[in-house]
Each structure stands twice: as structure tokens, then as C-alpha cells.
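lol so apparently i was supposed to do this last week
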Amino acid sequence: MSLSLLSQPVRDKFRRRPFGGIPYACQWIDEEDIAVVNEVLRSPYLTQGPCLEKFEEALAKTTGARYAVAVSNGSAALHLADVLCGAKPGSLGITSPITFAATANCLLYCGARVRFVDVNAVTGLMDSVNLHEVLAEEAEKDSLKNPLILPVSFAGRPVELPRIQKIAQQFGARVIEDAAHSLGAENENHGEVFSSGSCRYSDAAALSFHPVKHICCGEGGAFLTGDAKLADRARLLRSHGILKPFEGHTGATPQGPQWLQEQTELGWNYRMTEMQAALGLSQLKRLPFFLERRRHLAKRYYEAFQNYPFSDIIKTPPLIPGHACHLFVVHFPNSRLRDSAYEFLRSRQIGSQVHYKPVYRHPYYEKKFGFQRLPGAEKYFEGCLSLPLYPKLGDTEQDRIVETIKDFCRTC
Ligand SMILES: Cc1ncc(COP(=O)(O)O)c(C=O)c1O
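anyway here it is w/ pyridoxal-5'-phosphate bound
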């Protein structure tokens, strides 16, 4: 249905941007993206077709992971990763509280017990010393059952996977990188450069292609792994656990006629449509440009905030090479100033957001697991505010944001 067929109030609703001025995040869809999605709509395949395969190949190439299995969203990718790495009722799932709730929720879907490990108060990343402590404590209580660790490369800053994997091996735990924020991020270990999501130091990783992320599919995600068996099972489970001989699942392909479809495991409908895959493939071509813009804008923010009057009020975590700059987070000395800054920016039509309220503070988690406070996460959360950062944000718009924050700092 074209927009013109809709009633005026509905049309207005669709046309209205979610935020009137500068949003905190925004996708960049160009004419080529629109053309490839249109082409799919005229093709015989709307799901599980050639674009999906091409997108998966391109994702594997971009991240360096051997296998990529594209799914309906990042949460589905995390859920599959948890299941495939052995999460089940009674398992222990360890993650960071400074993340989107999905990282922990997916563990709960499997019936796992969730424990939060404290983060570095400056970067918000899982702290490996705290991780070791938590694992040692659980081992002493003899309660380490199928342990899983989900570190998050939060904001686009790569988490220290080599160290985390070493600790995991000590305790027989598996590692899943939540790379929803970090497509294109690079890390270094003793001179070896590896990409976020490569699974070089993890059993699996999950990506998200939500519109605020590095590339956008509307909704979308990918399960990444270096293990052929895990990839095969992920393909099976994203489609109800049903084997189809004509889709050539490797492994136990059932004997029988071509029409045969047999469910061998309990899976889900986590399939990605061809429209999503085509859009993702088209967006992925522009990933180097998107990253360049994000890094350019992050550097401009960083440099601006080193000077008076910002330097008295705002702290900015250091930018490191390889940072994929998904979010640009600044820290105010306390939540009162942060909240005032949020309102001040909002009154000038500038969006910002808090990433994140620690997951253990969500009412659902408090009710389920009780009151919890971790000092690093609390410190991080207290004054954090993510400023607008997305490739389409112009330098002039960014200057306006910086000037507005300057005005705010003058009121403090
Ligand atoms: C860190 C993190 N993990 C997982 C997810 C879940 O991804 P999706 O929204 O695609 O399900 C998100 C999405 O915002 C996220 O930010």
C-alpha cells in the first residue's frame, strides 16, 4: 500500500521522525539499498534465497569468522549461541550488567542462572579480574555447571577476549562474544590483529543489524562461529530444527524423497527474509565508509571535550585504535547532572540516551534475583550519556551538539 492510500493522520504518523531534531542514532539507507530490496520483491525468493547465502559469505569474510548464519535479529543469534554452547536449566551464564537486557534474557530463555560480573568503571567492559573471582567462587561452591561467559564489546570497544578465553579454559567455560555493537572493531594480541566477531578467541559471537547498529537490516542478526558443527546446528535450529534434504544440510541428512521434511530437534523460526539479507549485503559494502565516518565524528567529539569548559565537567573514555565507535559515551560527575544534560539537549531537539542502566536494576531482574549493586557498573552508570553518533550526522550538526553541551556546561 502506498502512503497516499493511507488516511491523513496515519500518513502523518509514518512521516513523523521518531525524534524531531537530531536523534541519538539513525540508519543510512540510500537509493541502492532501496533498489536491491525492490529487486528482491520482484524475485521468486522472499526468504532463504540467494541473498541470504551471499550475505552470510560476506559477513564471514568481513569478520574473519569461518561461518556466519544470518537470523531474524541479534537476540535470536544470542539465543542460538547460548543453546549451541550448552546453556540449559541449571547452567551458569555469566555476563556484564552494562549491556542491553537481551544478553542476559537469552540465558534465561535456556533456564540458565545468570550472574553479572563487574565492569571497568571507565570503559564499561567486563573486567577479567572480577570474572576470575566469580568463576573461582562458583567452582568452590561446586556450582559450575556448563558455564558460559558472554562478554560484550560494548559501545564498539573490543573486550579483552584473549584474556577472557584463557580464564574460561581454566574453568571449562565457553565464551560467546556479544558483538552487537562492534562490527568492524579490531583488537590486537601479541602483534596479531583480529576482528570482533572473528571467534578467534571465542566459541561463537552474535551480531545485530538493528537500525542503530553499524549496518541495518530493519531487524536482523548473525550467529558467528569457527566450528562447522555449531554452524550446521545453528542453520537447523533457526528453522524449527527441521531437516530438508533439498536444502542440503550437512550431517545427518535423512534418506527419503525430496519432499521429506523431518524435525530432529526443537528449534525456532529465526529465519532472515531475503529483503533483510539484500539490505544487509548492500549496507555491508558501505561498512568501511560507515566506520570511517563514525571514527571521524568520535575523534571530533573527543578532541572538543578535552578543553574548557567541558574538561571540568565531562569525562570521555580514551579512544583506541580499532574501536568501532558504535556509541560515544560521556560521563558527568553524577546522575543529577547527567539527567539535566539529557533534558537540556532534548529541549534543543538533540537526542541522547543512557547506555545502560545495569541489567540487574531492571524491575524484572530485581524481582527474580533480588537487589544487587556492583561498584564498577554503578560508577559507570551514574553519569553516562551517549551523544548522537551515526554516519549520516554532519560535522555542522555535530558542532551544534558540541555548542549546546558547552551552553549546558556554562549553566553548571
Ligand atoms: C549489546 C546488545 N546485545 C544484543 C542486542 C540484541 O539485538 P537485537 O535488537 O537485534 O535483537 C542488542 C540490541 O540492541 C545489543 O545492544
